[in-house]
Amino acid sequence: MSTKQTGRGEKRPNIFSQLYRGETDFQFVAHRKKFYIASAVVVAALAIVMLTKGFVLGIDFAGGVQYNVPAGETAASLEDVESAAASAGADVASGQVVGSGEDRSYIVRIGELSTDEASSIREAIAAEAGIGTEAISVSEVSATWGESVSRQALIALGVFMVLVGVFIWIRFERRMAIAALAALVHDLVLTAGFYALVGFEITPSTIVGMLTILGYSLYDTVVVFDKVQENTAQLLQTRSKTFAEGVNDAINQTLMRSINTSLIGVLPVAALLFVGVGLLGVGTLKDLALVLFVGMIVGAYSSIFLAAPWVVDMAERAAVIRRHNQKVANKRSGADDEKPARKGAPKAADKAVDGDDDRLVLAKSDDLPLELLEEPEKASSGSGGGNRSGGGAKKRKRR
Predict the structure, then answer these.
(1) Angstrom distance (rounded) from CA 389 to CA 349
(2) What's the CA gap between 146 and 107, in Å, rounded?
(3) How is the chain split among helix, strand and coil, in percent rounded to 5?
(4) Lowest mean pLDDT across 32-46, 287-301, 352-366
(5) Alpha-helical segments (H) within 172-282
(6) Is the dihedral of CA 264, 268, 273, 274 positive or negative?
(7) Residue 225 — φ and ψ, nearest 5°?
(8) Distances from the Cα of 26 to the Cαs of 3, 215, 322, 328, in angstroms?
(9) How far apart are CA 241 and CA 243, in angstroms?
(10) Which regions of 17-149 does DSSP assign to beta strands (E)?
(11) Do 179 and 307 form a contact (C-beta atoms < 8 A)?
(12) Residues 364/370/374/378 CA torsion (nearest 10 deg)
């Protein structure tokens, strides 16, 4: 880490002051390959977990029978109720405690059953809990309905991704749209992989949480991209920074904002997850709380360490960005490529190229005219190419 130097005799501000002012100089872009490798390793590991371990689908997706046992009327534990159901031949998918005090109840979810099997399991649970069978409510969900829910969730996700890509493409540029969508996919894979790792159920609350964190991650990414566009809008008119340096400055200038929004979002969700679920035993909240907690952290990470650096990688493939970066390097090394040689007049093509280059506004470099990118090759071809290039430059000016 390096920080911007202050004048002689001035007190150097601490790291928190630099963060608040956007004056830090963390080299996110310069070290981006390290973040790529770290993310690739984690994504690959979680992908293996998802393929081998799979997901625990809730009753709403897999179909089955759900038993609601009033726990305030019994001394039996959730484990006792689950054991009784298993002894009756049930394949228990999950169980959780809902509510507290006298309103506390056990929710036991079991796969699809016939009518007779469902009745016998209900009787076994009632006998273990010491309550009447009428006190246990039973809900059935068919697998067909679960498939419909899954299909609608995937459609909603697809529509969201398309709209996001179109919006960012129009508001910013193609490269940023691709980077934003890649970051969202990264967030989805990591969050889903973590769910597979811990074995939490996938419920409708989980899907709602997934869409919520995608919106949250997108917000953070758009904030960074807006600053990136501002920093690089006049980039070709100067020789002070490369494209990567302009993007890195944008990340540092929005870093405190990203940290603040992440903390504000994560802290209440952490309270919901660790206090509401861990201490109070409100099991119905854990599916939503976990996906929000993991997704917000992953979303903040991807917007800072992945999305903006990906834009740099794609931008540096453009010829105009490579030429600009080379001119910045030449200026810093003391070689001024815009000065004419000592002998002979400057080539008209070189003057035309540099003039056009300096007048361009780099908002969307993909819109640059093709002849601007081809001009250096014409100017450097043969001893007699100068006159032909000069004529080409004049022709372009007349147009």
Answers:
(1) 5
(2) 18
(3) 70, 10, 25
(4) 352-366
(5) 174-198, 204-232, 243-253, 255-270
(6) positive
(7) -65, -35
(8) 7, 26, 23, 21
(9) 7
(10) 24-25, 56-57, 64-70, 92-98, 105-110, 137-141
(11) yes
(12) -140
Mean per-residue pLDDT of the chain: 75
The C-alpha atoms of residue 42 and residue 49 are separated, in whole angstroms, by: 11
The pLDDT tens digits of the residues spanning 68-80 come to: 888 877 778 888 8
Which residue's structure tokens are 């399991």? 121
Residue type, 41: V
Residues 57-70 as b/e (b if ≥16 CB within 10 A, e otherwise) read: bbbbbbbbbbbebb
Residue 66's DSSP bridge partners are 109, 139
Q: Please give the torsion angle defined by the CA atoms of residues 116, 122, 126 and 129, in that order, rounded to the nearest 10 degrees.
A: 140
Written as six digits, the tokens of 202 are 């996938």
Q: What confidence tens digit (pLDDT) does each residue in 122-163 have?
A: 888 888 888 888 888 888 776 666 677 778 878 888 888 888
Does residue 317 sit in helix, strand or coil?
coil
The rounded distance, in Å, linking the Cα atoms of 214 and 393 is 48
Q: How far apart are CA 24 and CA 15, in angstroms?
A: 8
Cβ–Cβ < 8 Å for 67, 107: yes
Amino acid, single-letter form, for residue 388:
R
60 and 337 in contact (C-beta within 8 Å)? no
Residue with tokens 């400055």, as numbered in its chain: 249
Q: Is 139 helix (H, G, I), strand (E, B) or coil?
A: strand
Residue 140 CB-density burial (10 A; 0-12 exposed, 13-18 middle, 19+ buried): middle
Rg of the chain in Å (alpha carbons) = 30
DSSP one-letter string for 91-134: -EEEEEEES-GGG-EEEEEE----HHHHHHHHHHHHHHHTS-GG
Sign of CA dihedral 280, 282, 288, 290: positive
List Cα–Cα distances, 5 to 13, 25, 253, in angstroms.
Answer: 10, 10, 16
- The structure tokens listed for 8 are 């002689």
Q: How much is the pTM?
A: 0.69
Which range has the worst mean pLDDT, 131-145, 169-183, 243-257, 335-349? 335-349
Is 349 within 8 Å of 379 (Cβ atoms)? Answer: yes
